Amino acid sequence: MAYSDKVLDHYENPRNVGKMDVDKKNVGTGMVGAPACGDVMRLQIQVDDDGVIEDAKFKTYGCGSAIASSSLLTEWVKGKRLDEAEEIKNSQIAEELSLPPVKIHCSVLAEDAIKAAVADLRQKQGD
Amino acid sequence: MNKPIYFDYLATTPTDPRVVEKMTTCLSMEGNFGNPASRSHVFGWKAEEAVENARRQVANLINADSREIVWTSGATESDNLAIKGAAYFYKGKGRHILTSSIEHKAVLDSCRQLEREGYEVTYLEPTSEGLITCESVANSLRDDTILVSIMHANNEIGTVNDIAGIGEITRAAGVIFHVDAAQSAAKVPIDMDKMKVDLLSLSAHKMYGPKGIGALYVRRKPRVRLEAQMHGGGHERGMRSGTLATHQIVGMGEAAAIGMEEMESERDRVMALRERLWLGVKDLEAVQINGDLHQRLPGALNISFSFVEGESLIMSLKDLAISSGSACTSASLEPSYVLRALGLSDELAHSSLRFSIGRFTTKEDVDLAVEQLVHSVEKLRDLSPLWDMYKDGIDLDSVQWAAH
Fold first, then answer.
1. pTM of the entire structure?
2. Confidence of residue B401 (pLDDT cuts 50, 70, 90)
3. Residues 6+ apart with CB under 8 A from B60
4. B311 burial via Cβ count (<10 Å: 0-12, 13-18, 19+)
């Protein structure tokens, strides 16, 4: 299978790989997917006092497209407010990375991951 | 060193240069291009002589009589001819077939077709070591069983079944025994004089011959009958019509002769390389070999690297031509049915790679593979949330996953 240059770039040089403290009040964690399905994404976001995402980290078990989708997502969410981050659609990710049809589910997973991270953060902050 | 390095000898092998040389003498006006079935001139006679010589070479490889070799287009056709041909011919005796869940698709899909036609098929499960035991065959035979089809060596994990043992059981029961030996021929000894096998499928391109040619061994004593699947000029004693492809056949014959001559020395060399590869990666944490360690093809190694997904691992090993134990790279995202039959979890099946080593693999190739493998597995584990959890002592089976 031929991967697009952007997928290869994110795969070779993944951005924002890492782990944040799950217990911190201003950190939201979204973990989606299942090992049995071949992909698991963990996306974490940290917000500042104004509710703007100041940092994002990910770790992904999955194919190159899943790794690239989550890496791209961490770049995109930084600097966004939560409601803006929630607006990110899988189709935008798929388009940016030129994902083939069999890999669309990787972008869906990324969208699910940011939604889950935002929901986790909102719950923590009592919204 | 040419890159990528080929580590997929179970998928196919390059044609040995000695084989290519023989094949090229059977094509042009100056060469042996005649139709082996032409009886009226020397072109036909010469071609027939070459075909019959190749037939002896293939028969020798499995210690059979050359009259027991039927040329086909490959192991898929041989499997189809053996299974459907025997099932149709012996349907008066019964309609039950016994096979295993880890057979090649050519066997499984032939059986599925027969099921649609009213036959009953039992699919035996392998042990967790990937072997089909004699006991499981014996326990599943029925009065109306007409055919047992069990592979010699598995194409994904390389385990080698006790064909001689199973043959004793089927012969005693008076049941036809078919063996798909596409992966094992010229790698491990096959002796039709000692093994009570009735039908045996062979493929040239898995043993350094050309693609597009194979053979089916059909036992003469006791005689095994088949209903032809390809009708035409009555070639191959009516079992498989079609003009014989002299150059392909000569290639398969030469490949068989070389394979027989060099089997032992090649086995030792290839096995040492396989061991070298395993020694290089086994100290990585949470890795395992799939399938029995001893009953195994010399060059086959299927390894699970826990917490690393197979497709991304292949992507990162771009200098190595390997295949994923899982079928992830195809449109289907299902993990390998063979690894699942061994009892591997889907997660582990997704994390498996098949390395196969062969005639042209060198020590340097293996050393480079080890270096890149270790590097890639470590890199991908750094990226893996599952590895984090494993390191934190979390039991992944206890986690409620949001399956999608």
1. 0.92
2. confident
3. B256, B257, B260
4. buried
B328–A38: do the CB atoms touch at under 8 Å? yes
Among the listed residues A106, A110, A117, A118, the single catalytic one is A106
pLDDT band at A93 (very low <50, low <70, confident <90, very high): very high
Relative to beta strand B145-149, strand B96-100 is: parallel
Q: Which residue of B has its CA nearest to A18?
A: B383
pLDDT tens digits for range B123-159: 999 999 999 999 999 999 999 999 999 999 999 999 9
pLDDT band at A127 (very low <50, low <70, confident <90, very high): low
How far does Cα B272 stand from its chain's mean position?
21
- Chain B residues close to A63, C-beta within 8 Å: 309, 311-312, 315, 328
Determine the Cα–Cα distance for residues B345 and B339; give it in Å rounded to an integer: 8
Q: Is B347 on the interface with A (CB under 8 A)?
A: yes
**Average pLDDT score over residue span B275-292:** 96
Q: Tokens 């194919």 correspond to what residue? A: A63
Maximum CA pair distance of chain B? 80
Q: Which of A58, A87, A52, A55 is nearest to A72 (CA)?
A: A58
CA distance B235 to B219: 17
Reported ipTM: the value is: 0.93
Per-residue H/E/C for chain B: CCCCEECECCCCCCCCHHHHHHHHCCCCCCCCCCCCCCCCCHHHHHHHHHHHHHHHHHHHHCCCCHHHEEEECCHHHHHHHHHHHHHHHCCCCCCEEEEECCCCHHHHHHHHHHHHCCCEEEEECCCCCCCCCHHHHHHHCCCCEEEEECCCECCCCCEECCHHHHHHHHHHHCCEEEEECCCCCCCCCCCCCCCCCCEEEEECCCCCCCCCCEEEEECCCCCCCCCCCCCCCCCHHHCCCCCCCHHHHHHHHHHHHHHHHHHHHHHHHHHHHHHHHHHHHCCCCCEEECCCCCCECCCEEEEEECCCCHHHHHHHCCCEECEECCCCCCCCCCCCHHHHHCCCCHHHHHCEEEEECCCCCCHHHHHHHHHHHHHHHHHHHHCCHHHHHHHCCCCHHHCCCECC
Hey, are the CB atoms on B385 and A11 less than 8 Å from each other? Answer: no
